[in-house]
Specification:
Blueprint (H helix, E strand, L loop, with lengths): L17 H6 L1 H8 L8 H10 L32 H16 L4 H7 L2 H16 L22 H28 L18 H8 L5 H13 L4 E3 L23 E3 L1 H18 L3 H23 L13 H10 L9 H10 L5 H11 L4 H16 L7 H22 L3 H10 L4 H14 L6 H22 L1 H9 L6 H10 L24 H14 L3 H12 L18 H7 L6 H18 L3 H15 L8 H24 L8 H13 L14 H13 L15 H18 L9 H6 L19 H8 L3 H19 L26 H18 L4 H13 L3 H15 L14 H13 L3 H7 L8 H8 L20 H14 L2 H11 L10 H23 L2
Antiparallel strand pairs: 1-2
Length: about 1000
């Protein structure tokens, strides 16, 4: 014996081979009677039908000559099966009989080819000769039988013709639900998917469909008892007996109602599919009738256990509803819809009935009212306009009554009465009429609500309608009687207070009276609300004539101007120019806050021209005011540019020149004597020049009076260092040393927030250029790394080499403030540049450091999705690196998604098998991340082999088979060239990335 010759692995004692069922038929019965047999009955059918002699096509049994070595003596009746084939086919049919020939189970688990094979074998064995599907001679098919009994062949043909109808319905449902891209969660054992071959084979059934329908309809008329082949009807072949006969006499007769319920059910399903709804309705009603009779007989103990019918009661109810059969008399809502289709016939009767039963939702009734109103508004000529208007008022009146009795939406009642003001008498008469007609049918509570409402009508409209109301009460006395109306009117007393003419006016206009205070108040309101400089001028002239006791700019406390402008305006002589300048500047700031920059600039331009009038030329305060107003205009222009970023201004070069001139005013200036812009203007000018990359204009001497300008100058120096020292690391300290003190812990305070008016926060709000933002982000990220001083929590950003690697005494700095500033800048940056991949990764690092693992994964995945153009290109380096992958693995593990972590271990240049195996074997893993859905994302054979072995140890047979199926894919063959392997990995990386995007981004 050759000890080196490979041998098969010994099988487990529990393993049963297929031929053992032939040798010991009792084994099959014992196996099928288990609570959850593994393999399942349908799996056994697949196995029995799949085992054929080598070289034989399992789907072409009729044309293959028998093998003399493996077959016994052939039967002379033309059933051309080998003995081995026949034995296996009998076993498959026994299992099908065990599951009561349930086509639902067979269609879910067997491919179309296997279904055809099983039905063909059944028909052939029942006929005693080879039968080729599809059957074209339905009415001659009973004559096919030679030796087989007629009832057995009838049973086989019935099952086949039922399948013909169901297969077409199922094919249409699968095609409709097919997605353009297969979801990676689809497993090997999932319900059968239709291939192109299956599609063509089922399409070939269409010419024979009518023949199947005719056969089933003829069967419904047959007086003979229908017999169902049972598990005992099929006798396994014995090795000692060549011509074992099937026990067709063991077939059991079923009641006609059980057969008819099943056939009518299948016909209804098919007719619904082909949209022949009237026929579907007929069959579903017959199915319901027979199903109810069958259930009644079962309940009485006469029907016996179900042998053939697999109709589900809930599914049948669904088909009844689909065919428009509710099983109850037509409801009011259905009658309403039918009435609308019939041009509102009987609509009043339906609404009156609904006021008692209250089945129709008020939304439907209100829509009906609006539809009739619109129908009448377009001037339809289909009927008498007078009758159409009466119908509209009738519907409105009935709706009002329903509103009142519901005790809600009383406002709708009053709105309706106001809406139909011209037809008010007719509408109120309709209200009295319909309420009176049904008064006795309403509950006592409803009557009380109606009486209260009608008393309100009498109160509100009694004076307007006069005798008409009394006529309604006399004609319809049930709701409000004449005596009640008289008693009510006697109880009303005349009002004690006599109102003046102004109190009873219908509008709110000021009466024609001369009241100076009212006139002044009206002018002041106009002055506050107007936005035109000319209107302000005219109103100031009018108000000046009233001799006000205080400056007019004080009438609105919301007008505020910078302190530097107040120092110029307050010393001005009280008068028109002072009020005009103060009010226009205040309004300009209000409009700028509302982002109405054009109007704000117009007001300041008018004011600038006002200061240049010849008669004011000699006043130094007016000259200074003109300069300050010019700078205020520049300030608002900069605000507009920052708000509309990245749209560039039309006069960009002129704006840059103005900003440079503004900044030059502080060079060598004396704060006590020289006129300079206030700090906000200067800092906005510096920020705009920084965003426009005007580096040279920002190389200013440090000026402690303006920390925002100083910080802009330091960031400029950092950029120049990047340009000057390309390829070398140059540490920049200017910006670092300016920012560092801003994060010192406040004395005696454990925690605080960044001050909203701090120079850093104000500058962050004005940063727009990506390069400048990246430099500032790198500074804050590096400072966070240094202060936290934990390598595992370091952040990665561009240009981090610019900054020092350490600081003295990190404990005096507030790490939370650094993180807050970093988050603030990142959120604003991503608002303007949402697809900047380094910033998205940095945002993920910020969340990772804060232990927000789900948020971190969302940003990491977003970065990879953006970098691959939404998975349209392959994921490659340097879009991801080992640092990013390790963080994603940590996030996945912390979230309990261990299989995700294992898949990510493949992304390294050398897969980290230790970490991957540990993730797969994690005890706390509960498959919350759908373990077997990620098999299609694994391209490393070693990892798949480990999963196969792991499932084997766990006793998970189905999952092991699924993994083996993926391991056997051709593109994962170890002998493939490198290009095929790279392509296979790239496809699976993108598939995995899409899965992560669905989980974390959707």
């Amino acid at each position: 014996m050759d000890l080196l010759k490979p041998r098969t692995v010994p099988l487990s004692e529990e393993t049963i081979l297929w031929f053992e069922f032939l040798l010991k038929p009792a084994l099959l019965t014992k196996h099928l009677n288990k609570p959850n047999p593994d393999p399942s009955p349908t799996d056994l059918i697949i196995q029995f039908l799949s085992i054929t002699p080598e070289g034989q096509n399992p789907h072409d049994v009729s044309t293959t000559p028998p093998d003399p070595e493996t077959s016994g003596p052939q039967k002379s009746d033309g059933l051309r099966y080998t003995k081995k084939q026949l034995a296996l086919k009998v076993l498959a049919l026994k299992v099908a009989a065990f599951i009561r020939w349930d086509l639902d189970q067979l269609e879910r688990s067997l491919t179309v080819a296997r279904q055809v094979q099983l039905l063909g074998d059944l028909c052939s064995i029942m006929a005693g000769k080879m039968v080729t599907l599809p059957l074209s001679l339905v009415h001659e098919s009973p004559t096919v039988a030679v030796d087989g009994p007629k009832h057995a062949l009838t049973f086989a043909l019935t099952l086949y013709h039922r399948w013909v109808l169901r297969a077409q319905v199922l094919r249409a449902a699968v095609i409709k639900n097919t997605k353009p891209f297969n979801n990676h969660t689809q497993t090997v054992t999932e319900s059968v998917s239709f291939t192109l071959r299956d599609e063509s084979s089922i399409s070939a059934l269409e010419p024979f469909t009518q023949l199947s329908i005719d056969f089933l309809n003829q069967l419904l008329q047959e007086p003979h008892t229908f017999r169902v082949l049972t598990y005992d009807s099929f006798v396994p072949l014995d090795s000692n007996i060549d011509n074992t006969q099937q026990r067709f006499e063991a077939a059991l007769a079923i009641r006609a109602c059980e057969l008819r319920a099943q056939i009518h059910y299948d016909l209804c399903m098919y007719y619904l599919f082909v949209q022949r709804y009237e026929l579907a309705r007929q069959h579903v009603l017959l199915c319901k009738e027979n199903y109810t009779q069958w259930q009644r007989e079962k309940g009485a103990g006469r029907g016996g256990p179900p042998l053939y019918c697999t109709v589900d009661g809930d599914a049948l109810q669904g088909y009844l509803l689909a065919c428009g059969v509710t099983g109850e008399p037509d409801g009011l809502l259905q009658r309403l819809h039918e009435s609308i289709l019939n041009h509102y016939s009987d609509i009043v009767v339906i609404l009156k009935e609904d006021n008692i039963r209250r089945e129709i939702p008020m939304t439907q009734r209100k829509l009906l009212e609006l539809n009739i109103e619109g129908y009448n508004a377009i001037g339809s000529t289909d009927g008498n306009p007078v009758e159409q208007k009466e119908l509209e008022l009738a519907v409105v009146a009935l709706n009002i009554i329903r509103y009142v009795m519901d005790g809600e939406n009383i406002l709708s009642c009053n709105v309706a009465l106001q809406k139909y003001k011209h037809e008010q008498p007719k509408l109120i008469e309709s209200l009295f009429q319909y309420a009176d007609e049904q008064y006795d049918q309403f509950a006592e509570e409803d009557r009380t609500l109606l009486r209260r409402y009608f008393f309100d009508i009498v109160t509100l409209y009694g004076a307007e309608l006069g005798s008409a109301i009394e006529g309604f009460v006399r004609t319809y006395p049930r709701v409000v009687s004449e005596q009640e109306l008289q008693d009510y009117r006697q109880q009303r007393s005349e009002p004690d207070t006599q109102l003046s003419g102004i109190a009873v006016q219908n509008d709110w206009t000021i009466p024609e009276t001369k009241n100076v205070r009212l006139e002044v108040g009206q002018l002041e309101r106009q002055l506050i609300s107007c936005t035109s400089a000319n209107a302000v001028r005219k109103l100031l002239v009018k108000l000046a004539g009233t001799n006000p006791s205080k400056p007019l700019f004080t009438i609105n406390p919301s007008w505020s101007i910078p302190y530097a402008l107040e120092q110029i305006l307050i010393p001005l002589q009280r008068g028109f120019l002072q009020d005009f300048a103060y009010i226009l500047i205040g309004k300009a700031h209000e409009l700028a806050a509302r982002k109405d920059y054009a109007t704000a600039l117009t007001l300041l331009t008018v004011l600038k021209n006002e200061t240049q009038r010849p008669e004011l030329a000699g006043n130094p305060l007016v000259t200074k005011l003109g300069k300050m107003v010019s700078w205020e205009g520049l300030y608002i222009q900069i605000q507009q540019v920052l708000a509309e970023w990245p749209r560039k201004p039309a006069d960009q070069q002129q704006l840059i020149r103005s900003c440079k001139q503004c900044l030059n005013t502080i060079i060598g200036s004396n704060a006590s004597t020289d006129l300079i812009p206030h700090a906000k203007v200067l800092e906005h000018c510096a920020a705009l020049l920084l965003n426009f990359n005007e580096w040279n204009a920002l190389l200013l001497q440090p000026d402690k009076r303006f920390p925002g300008i100083e910080l802009c100058s330091a960031l400029t120096q950092a950029f120049l260092d990047i340009e000057k020292f390309k390829g070398t690391k140059k540490t920049n300290r200017e910006a670092w040393e300016l920012v560092l003190p801003m994060f010192l812990n406040a004395p005696g305070s454990r925690q605080r927030q960044l001050a909203p008016d701090s120079p850093l926060v104000l500058l962050i709000a004005k940063l727009r250029d990506p390069l400048v933002i990246s430099i500032m982000l790198s500074l804050l990220a590096k400072l966070h790394n240094v202060v936290k001083d934990e390598t595992n929590f370091d952040m990665n950003a561009e240009y981090m080499f610019l900054w020092p690697a350490n600081v003295n005494n990190t404990s005096v700095y507030n790490l939370k403030l650094v993180a807050e500033a970093l988050n603030l800048l990142l959120n604003q940056a991503l608002k303007y540049y949402p697809n900047n991949i380094p910033w998205i990764k940095l945002k993920g690092d910020v969340e990772y450091v804060s232990n927000n693992y789900e948020a971190a994964m969302r940003f990491y995945v977003t970065a990879l999705i953006s970098g691959t153009e939404y998975c349209t290109v392959h994921l490659q380096r340097p879009l991801f690196d080992d640092f990013l992958i390790r963080r994603m693995i940590k996030c996945s593990s912390s979230l309990g998604c261990f299989v995700q972590a294992a898949v990510l271990c493949q992304f390294f240049d050398e897969p980290d098998y230790g970490l991957a195996f540990k993730s797969i074997s994690e005890k706390s893993s509960s498959y919350a991340d759908a373990m077997d859905s990620y098999y299609s994302c694994i391209w490393d054979p070693t990892l798949l082999e480990f999963i196969v072995n792991w499932h084997y140890k766990k006793g998970e047979h189905k999952r092991r088979l699924q993994t083996i199926a993926f391991l056997g894919q051709l593109e994962l063959n170890a002998n493939n060239n490198e290009e095929i392997k790279r392509e296979a990995a790239a496809v699976r990386k993108n598939r995995f990335l899409r899965s992560l995007a669905k989980q974390y981004m959707c």
